[in-house]
Amino acid sequence: QVEVVESGGGLVQAGGSLRLSCAASGRSFFRSPMGWFRQRPGEEREFVGSISRNAGSTYYGDSVKGRFTISRDNAKNTGYLQMNSLKPEDTAVYYCAASRETINFSYAPVRQYDYAYWGQGTQVTVSS
To answer: pLDDT category, 27, cuts 50, 70, 90?
Structure first.
C-alpha cells in the first residue's frame, strides 16, 4: 500500500517555473513506478510524465516534452515534477500516482489505469 500527497502548486506567470513534489508513504515506494497526470476543467485526465522505479526510464506527454522534468528520490520517498516555461494551457489540477510494485526496472506506465494509488491533486494556475 502506498499513499501519495502532492504539494507545490500555485499561481505563476507565463514563462515561469514551479516544482511539484509527491510525498509517498509505504515501504514499497522504491519498487513502484510513479506518474504525473493533469486535468483541466471539463476535460479528461491527461498524461504528463512517468518514471520507473529506479529512474532509469522516463516518459513525457507531447505537450510537455522539453519543458517538464520528472525525477524521484527513493531515499526520501519523494517524486518531483519540475515545470519550466509554463504556459497558460498548463493550468490544471496535477495528480501524482504510484503504480503497484514491479521487478521491471524500465517499466513506467503512461496510462492512468495502470496506477493504483493517487493523490488528491494540486492546482497549478499559469497567468498570461
So the answer is: confident
- Cα 122 from Cα 128, distance rounded (Å): 20
Is residue 1 over pLDDT 80? no
CB 121 within 8 A of CB 95: yes
Length of the chain (residues): 128
β-strand partners of 120: none
Q: Is 108 helix (H, G, I), strand (E, B) or coil?
A: coil
Q: CA-based angle 78:58:69, to the nearest 5? A: 65
Q: Find where cell 512517468 sits.
A: 50
* Sequence-separated (6 or more) residues with CB below 8 Å from residue 108: 33, 35, 50, 51, 52, 57, 58, 59
Strand bridging mode 58-60 / 78-83? unpaired
Residue 68 in contact with residue 49, Cβ under 8 Å? Answer: yes
* C-alpha cell of residue 17: 517555473
Q: What is the pLDDT of residues 42-56, one digit of tens each?
A: 999 999 999 999 999
- C-beta separation of 20 from 8 below 8 A: yes
